[in-house]
Amino acid sequence: MQMDEAKQLRAEWAAKGSPPCDHPQLLKEYYLGTQTGDKVCTTCGEDFSEAEWRAMQGRPARS
């Protein structure tokens, strides 16, 4: 997902009152075609660093 698409999703989610989100699907985030290393929730647009999404999956962060 492009970074600007994620930004738009976050704005739309905020307009809905920012209800809780279980982040059912995360996609790689891109900026101008280059991976940022983050993942983005396709529902609310929240972005997660590699360490954050690994922790969500119960996997240790890379060292």
Number of domains: 1
Average pLDDT figure: 91
- H-E order: HEEEH
List low-confidence stretches.
none
Strands ordered across the widest β-sheet: 1-2-3
How many strands appear in the DSSP assignment? 3
Number of helices: 2
Protein name: Zinc finger protein
Organism: Pseudonocardia alaniniphila
Summarize the entry for a quick read:
By secondary structure, the chain is of the alpha+beta class.
Sum up the structure in keywords:
alpha+beta, 3-stranded antiparallel β-sheet, 25% strand, 2 helices, Zinc finger protein, 3 strands, 32% helix
Describe the model.
- It contains 2 helices and 3 strands, in the order H-E-E-E-H.
- It has helices at residues 3-15, 50-56; strands spanning 26-31, 34-41, 47-48.
- It is flat.
- It has one domain (3-56).
- By secondary structure, it is of the alpha+beta class.
- This is Zinc finger protein.
